[in-house]
Amino acid sequence: MNNQASTDPITQAVTTEEPRRTFELEDRGFREVPKKWRKFYRHWEGEDDWLGPNEIICPVCKVVIRSKRELRVGDRLYCMPCMSRMVVVEAQDGSLATEVIY
Ligand SMILES: [Zn+2]
Questions:
Q1: Which pTM was predicted?
Q2: Distance, CA 80 to ligand 1 centroid (Å)?
Q3: Which residues have their alpha-adjacent CB atom under 5 A from ion ligand 1?
Q4: How far apart are CA 43 and CA 29, in angstroms?
Q5: What are phi and psi of 91, to 5 degrees?
Q6: Which of 1, 65, 85, 86 has the smallest count of CB within 10 Å of its CB?
Q7: How remote is the CA of residue 64 from the centroid of ligand 1, in Å?
Q8: Per-residue pLDDT tens digits for 60-90
């Protein structure tokens, strides 16, 4: 369990009463990070692409960050490809977005 927490992009999950859905991640060929972490990232594939409830786009490098857990507002994430830290926020349309933490 500790090992999982240290490799998942969620570095600090917001405390919530509701159970989260969990996801099985597969390697999508993202070669910019070491093999162990590849399944946590993928490239955005354009207009036909869509984000799952466990995925969010890094505002800095535009890579899709993927977690084993459903994302919630307040979660803190780490983007390994560009080394950015961010927090999940709610966008104006109600979807999830991120704000970079400096
Ligand atoms: Zn990034």
A1: 0.88
A2: 7
A3: 58, 60-61, 79, 82, 84
A4: 9
A5: -80, 170
A6: 1
A7: 8
A8: 999 999 999 999 999 999 999 999 999 999 9
